[in-house]
Amino acid sequence: MSLFAYQFTQDLVDWYESEQRDLPWRRSRDPYRIWISEVMLQQTRVDTVIPYYENFLKKFPTLPALANAHEDEVLKAWEGLGYYSRARNLHGAVKEIAASYDGVVPNDPDKFRELKGVGPYTGGAVMSIAYDFKEPAVDGNVMRVLSRVLYITEDISKQKTRKQFEEHVREYLEMTEPSKFNQALMELGALICKPKKPDCEQCPVSKLCVAREKGVVEQLPIKAKKAKPKDQQVSCAVIVDENERVLIEQRPKEGLLAGLWQFPAVLGHEDDLSSVLHDQYKLDISLQKESDVFKHVFSHLKWEVSIYTGTIATEEDHQGVWVNKQEFQTYSFPVVYQKIAKHYLGW
DNA sequence: AAGTCGGGGCG
DNA sequence: CGCCCAGACTT
Question: Entry cofactor note text (predicted)?
Answer without folding.
Answer: Binds 1 [4Fe-4S] cluster.
